[in-house]
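Posting this for the archive.
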Amino acid sequence: MRLRTLGAVCATSAAAVPLPIIATSASAQTLLPAPTPVPAGATIPGDLQTGAIELLSNRHLRFARHYNRLLGDPLTLGERKAIYAELRELTPYKVRVETREVRQDIRRLQRKLDRKRERAHGGAPDVAIPSQLASIARCESGGDPRAISSGGTYRGKYQFSFSTWASVGGKGDPAAASETEQDRRAAILYRTGGPGHWPVCGR
């Protein structure tokens, strides 16, 4: 709207101002500058769209390959070429929509795989187990994951108290957790303060 209004004002002003007399002599003539030539490799609007689709298609393909690797079924070269050819037929907007859906699929699949991994480890994260924990466990409980102190305060292979167990993400009774989970929770505790969490057996 502003461009149209500006054009109307300019047209009115041009009509109101008398045109200057242009000299006809060769010496007085003012030559207009020649138009700037368009470079041979200049990008035109059609090329812009083609370039955008190419960039978006390559990005989509990266996510698609990641998704299939998570599934354990990597895309073959032929499958990648087929996906790329299909994407090249879409508009940039449609490619973005397709990519957004793949990214959502990746997030859902990653959460599913994380939950499966946690269940396999008794709900504990996948962490390295320090070798020092073996001697601590032998000292604390004789290596028995079901051991409970005489007063019932300290429980499991590493004789966790309920509060310490909860502080490393454990739930419920430490002595009822799988031995794998106890090892992993103990490793998390060890990582935050070393053997000092076990004042007697950690020395």
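The CA atoms of residues 71 and 109 lie 8 Å apart. Residues 47-120 form one domain.
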